[in-house]
Amino acid sequence: MNTIMRKSVLGIAGLAVAGGLAAGPLNHDTGTPVETTPAAVAVQADKPAVDKSTLIPHGVQGQQSRIELSDEQIANTKAIIAATKKAGMDERAAVVAIATALQESKLENLGHLGDRNDHDSQGLFQQRPSSGWGTVEQITDPEYSTLAFLKGLKQVDGWQDMPLTKAAQTVQVSAYPFHYAQWEQQAADLVAEHWNS
């Protein structure tokens, strides 16, 4: 593509984005527009892509659910990813953690909910102080609660080779063990989007 044509295309894309239009290429994993300004393209080129085959190595199980996330939920997603990296674990561990938090709290850092609480469960993973997960202050800290979840996951022999719902259930011991599976695709999409951001 010659330089004049390239500048025209980038200029049109920049105007469309500035004008609030969803013009330009779409991220086919998320259906969102890809930012096409020269600066954004340069930043995206510097980030290595996540190998998506490692995110869902066994395929998803059952019908998948998806919710739209608020800024707070995205921040909690990023906190889970950062804690996963801090724990020295890989993208698959982040997928398991995020899917678990989607099921347990919809990625909201829940405090005490009164009569709606499952006993004394709180935080992103609905961990219980009375079950030894930590203090209320600790389990409502996204980094601490994620590291606690991942510590439990590390103790599950062969978790990497298990379906997500079985790995999550082994750590969480939920009354609804198969509900984690429905969040695997959204969790994988979130890890693919935010692992290198």
UniProtKB/TrEMBL annotation:
Signal peptide segment: 1-23
Keyword terms: Signal
Protein name, UniProt field: Secreted protein
The species this protein was found in: Micromonospora coxensis
